[in-house]
Every structure is written in C-alpha cells, then in structure tokens.
Amino acid sequence: MTYKVVLSSVSVLAALVGVGISTVGVANAQSNLPAATSTKQNDASGSVSGKSDATVKVEQGYLTLDAVPDMNFGMTAQTKTANKNIPLVSNAGLIDDDGNDSGMLKVTDSRGTDDGKTVTTMPWNLTAQLGSFSSASGAALTSSSDWAIHLNQTAGTNSVSAANMPAVYQPVLTSGDNAEHQVLKSSQGNGTGSTTVYYNKANDASLDMGANVPAGQYDAPITWTLNATPTSASN
C-alpha cells in the first residue's frame, strides 16, 4: 500500500499590475510588555525583563512533510512573444494555504530502528505538480502549456550528514499537465533525519509565461506530494 502526504503552496505572478503585501503582527494577550525600567520619568536606574519561549519537537517512527514554499514572481510586462525565465522575486504568498514565505521545502524521516549503532532507512520521494494559472478577474489565458516553473536548486542540507542528503532534481513543472515531477528522492542508505531545500533566491526558480497575457494577477497551485513508497515520477 502506498501512503502519501500532500501539501499545497501557490505560485503568483502579477502582470502589469503591482500587488501590495502587508504583514500584520499579532500581540500575545498574556504579555506583560511593554514595561518600563522605572516608575519615574527620566530615571537612569532600574531594569526590566521579558520572557519568550524556545520550542522543539522530536519525533520517532514517522515520515513527515514539514514545509512547502510559496513562489512569487513579482510583476512583469506583457509581451508579444512568450516570456521565458522570469526569476523568482520572493516567497510572499497571497492565498491561504500550506505554503511558507521563507522558501523552505522540508521532509523529516524518523522511521526505522535506532539502537545507537545503526539506522534502518526506507526510501521515499517527493514530487511537485503545477496546476493551471488562472486570473481572479477571469481574464482569458493563453494555452496552459506556455506556462511552466523551472525548479533550479541543486543542493540542500540534511541534519544527519552531507552523505545522507537525498538527490535533488531540477524539474520543469508545466501548468496543468497533471504530471508529478521528481523533486527529492532518497535511496536505501540515505534520507533519514531532516532534509531541507530552499527556493528563495532569484536563480532558485523561474517562470515561463505565454505571449499576449492580459493584465492581471495570475495564480496557480503547486501540489507537493511526499511518497512513503517511491514512485516513478518524471523529471
């Protein structure tokens, strides 16, 4: 039996129209801050302290998909021909989904037995599928095959060791092709611990866009699927 964990993030492109993004902080209702060092004005004595939390969760026996990245390709101009390789601008997502704004893709494999000497590894793989780009205004799009995201990152980190790092692929995700493309793949003997890959720099990912795209904001879902039984996904 094959077990899958699926999370979705979003790819965003604003064509000709800028999109403002704001971040709103949420205050802790139980906080004692702000607090003054003294009850007297202009006092050069006294001190004040505040407490925060440090948290870590340790797991054993599970394969988990921990984080998937949103991808924002900013703003571009309409062109008469296909616009190739628009670089990644940020990871600011505009849709409420599982995506994060740091560009992090993370998998943790804590399965197997660990007796302090050996760890039994079980291969896994992670795929990505790009849905169809659509406009909130309903503007007509060119053929979906004109749209594609290139995942160009070649490296990542593994919490156990560099030798334990799974293979990182550089697939081209074509909009609406319904294909699962290989992004990460472990083999017998590696992939345990936490594996992290970042897509947060301009050359980490790029977008191909069709010609004569009407002005507007276009979004497409990216479905990231973690397979406990590796699949024969395309690259």
From TrEMBL:
Pfam families: WxL. InterPro entries: WxL_dom. Keywords: Signal. Residues 57-230 form the WxL domain. Residues 1-29 form the signal peptide. This is Conserved protein. It comes from Weissella oryzae (strain DSM 25784 / JCM 18191 / LMG 30913 / SG25).
